Amino acid sequence: MIPRYLVDVVLEDLPVIDKDVIVIGAGIAGLFTAIKASKTNEVLMITKKSLLDSNTRYAQGGIAAVISEDDSPAYHRQDTLIAGAGLCADEAVELLVHEGPKGVDDLVRMGTQFDQENGEFALTKEGAHSQRRILHANGDATGFEIVRALSEKAVENSRIEVWDDHFVIDLITDNGKCLGALVQKPDGQRLFVRGKATVLCSGGAGQLYRYTTNPEVATGDGIAMAYRAGAYIQDVEFIQFHPTSLCYPGAPRFLISEAVRGEGAVLRNIKGERFMEKYHEQLELAPRDIVARAIVSEMEETKSTFVYIDITHESADMVKHRFPTIYEFCLNYGLDMTSDWIPVAPAAHYMMGGVKADLNGETNVARLFACGECSSTGVHGANRLASNSLSEAIVFGRRIVERINQLEPLPKDTTVHMDSLDRREPSIQAVVEKRLKLQKIMVRYAGLRRDGKGLGKGLEELKRQLPIFHSELTKREEYEFANLLTCAMLTTEAALTREESRGAHYREDFPDRDDLVWRKHSVLHREHGVIEERINDV
């Protein structure tokens, strides 16, 4: 069993810092929640790197909200439910589609500059959306623009203190209540930060896989520490692989946005043949999981490591204007989108599951909230609809703050005792090697296509790494590895349990969706193991 805490400390010996609200993470979820909370609370934002390092920063497509006269919440709801493949939580989706536009207004008020045409928001369409409802910024740099605007707001706000380069090791709990967090400073010193509410906004776990569109920091820390603290972890078998990430020697796995296909790009195998008609009637705009698996099938058939995305038939001006970031990035590697086919392959992109949270973002651990990719509100079901992630973060960020404002402050004399293990030994093998090994196991056994035999073998191999939890951990990369190992085991176990194919979870030994048996969430708990939860009908 994974131990309750990653390190042995005597809490009474540590310096204590009191704040009203502790926000862990710095993407759109963390920044937006911190800014909203600061109206009535003193807020501490902790980020293990800097305010500009998060998955949000790399979000190109945009943010989905009902803005256009031709659109309606009912259409947005229907598109979300279809993509979610029967696992969406109906009430959560209702909130998303009705409150999304208000969230966009908030972002604009906070300084985000979305692209406009003729004085109105320029809306685009992405895969599996029935209407044009995606707001974007600087063409294809939406996430960066949102983070820029919100970071500036947070930094100039006297009620928000920002700690860069600090690592949250664990959540401190007592009798099912979260009292705050154990934090390590850049110099290695540890502190106990106490608060009436702790909000996890720590992002996803793309680093579980060797090839990912996520930054280095996406190591599932929030999900792992919440699991250790006794929170329920839901639906983590559903990992979305983005079908089209750049696959070129020397280049990182840079995202080639869904919107490129939305604007007419086609996919070709290395023989130059367009192939999506073999797999789905929506062709290149089929749901992501279908496109990603189709690409893998073509790669296997043609013995290649990539396919091409081709937008050369569109005007060069349109491509440069609509996708300036992608165009420029590819150009740095000698690839010109307007005249070259761009080599792409699937890469791990987004985690639909996470820390189970209610409609106010609160977990089963009192005073502990989760927002954004690390949470599981039920909005995304088994497969996220493109551009719903940024909307989810602002809709639930706002609700979390409303709930926090109802909480009583923590009594000042709150103390808690942490059990000491006294059996930690220095870690021997370099963490870098362990991490690479873990990523290879996940790609091989718990990737785009899975089966029971492989998942069982993968889980066995992961369990061999468990001694890390009895080692003395002191460095950020050691904590990150322990968190990745926790998430890897949770994902593999949930995938092994779900004997069907649904959304982003595909089992070759159970290729069909089975609503009779499996229309339920898989929920994991540190002490109770795997629990399943039926879904009230949608």
From TrEMBL:
<dbReference type="Pfam" id="PF02910">
    <property type="entry name" value="Succ_DH_flav_C"/>
</dbReference>
<dbReference type="Pfam" id="PF00890">
    <property type="entry name" value="FAD_binding_2"/>
</dbReference>
<dbReference type="InterPro" id="IPR003953">
    <property type="entry name" value="FAD-dep_OxRdtase_2_FAD-bd"/>
</dbReference>
<comment type="function">
    <text>Catalyzes the oxidation of L-aspartate to iminoaspartate.</text>
</comment>
<dbReference type="InterPro" id="IPR036188">
    <property type="entry name" value="FAD/NAD-bd_sf"/>
</dbReference>
<comment type="similarity">
    <text>Belongs to the FAD-dependent oxidoreductase 2 family. NadB subfamily.</text>
</comment>
<dbReference type="GO" id="GO:0008734">
    <property type="term" value="F:L-aspartate oxidase activity"/>
</dbReference>
<dbReference type="InterPro" id="IPR005288">
    <property type="entry name" value="NadB"/>
</dbReference>
<dbReference type="InterPro" id="IPR015939">
    <property type="entry name" value="Fum_Rdtase/Succ_DH_flav-like_C"/>
</dbReference>
<feature type="domain" description="FAD-dependent oxidoreductase 2 FAD-binding">
    <location>
        <begin position="20"/>
        <end position="390"/>
    </location>
</feature>
<keyword id="KW-0662">Pyridine nucleotide biosynthesis</keyword>
<comment type="pathway">
    <text>Cofactor biosynthesis; NAD(+) biosynthesis; iminoaspartate from L-aspartate (oxidase route): step 1/1.</text>
</comment>
<keyword id="KW-0274">FAD</keyword>
<protein>
    <recommendedName>
        <fullName>L-aspartate oxidase</fullName>
        <ecNumber>1.4.3.16</ecNumber>
    </recommendedName>
</protein>
<dbReference type="InterPro" id="IPR037099">
    <property type="entry name" value="Fum_R/Succ_DH_flav-like_C_sf"/>
</dbReference>
<keyword id="KW-0560">Oxidoreductase</keyword>
<feature type="domain" description="Fumarate reductase/succinate dehydrogenase flavoprotein-like C-terminal">
    <location>
        <begin position="435"/>
        <end position="526"/>
    </location>
</feature>
<dbReference type="InterPro" id="IPR027477">
    <property type="entry name" value="Succ_DH/fumarate_Rdtase_cat_sf"/>
</dbReference>
<keyword id="KW-0285">Flavoprotein</keyword>
